[in-house]
Amino acid sequence: MDFNGSDTIPGPRTEDHLPHTAQAAAKIVIVGGFGVGKTTMVGSVSEIRPLTTEETMTQAGVGIDDNYGSESKTATTVAMDFGRISITDQLVLYLFGTPGQQRFWFLWNGLFEGALGAVVLVDTRRLEVSFDVMGRLEERGVPFVVAINSFPDAPRHPIPELRSALDLAEEIPMIECDVRRRSSSRDVLLTLMRFLHSLAMTGSPR
């Protein structure tokens, strides 16, 4: 019974319904270190109200979690973020944002299951975190693109220099973005889809 005394149980909002034209769906994971913008990206681009599992940060994480560059951050994802976006009338992407703190990385394996591809979000203030992230994707055989999230106080470097610093293969796309902007986050996802399509066309292994 709802608060109005009715026996009707409220269902999903109209805007949350899957488009009737959708013919295919794909699972995409958004990964990266702590505070790189994964929750923000899911929230900015999702066409439905995103599901988040953020909890207030406590003293328990002091000395354990590396929050360099994100000292003002007061909440963190402890399980996953979830959202959805229609790339075309026929193709829908389900977005899963992973927790960034390394003590929660054991949850990644389940989130990687069935993933078509991934976006690796990078903060240029903490490039070293990205090596472990990309290594885990390579071990699982999940193709990915790299998106450099533009923080106002982060150092800016040319894409070729960042590619070299990350030891990233030339064929893996790298793009700059601002995950606070829906159009920018969408461009990242479109870059990933084009990359996945090229892999399918050339028969390259995942």
Automatic annotation (TrEMBL):
Keyword GTP-binding: yes
Listed InterPro entries: Gliding_Motility_GTPase (IPR052705), Gpn (IPR004130), P-loop_NTPase (IPR027417)
Keywords, ordered alphabetically: GTP-binding, Hydrolase, Nucleotide-binding
Domain of life, source organism: Bacteria
Any Pfam family: ATP_bind_1
Family: Belongs to the GPN-loop GTPase family.
Annotated protein name in UniProt: ATP/GTP-binding protein
Source organism per UniProt: Streptomyces carpinensis
Lineage of source species: Bacteria, Bacillati, Actinomycetota, Actinomycetes, Kitasatosporales
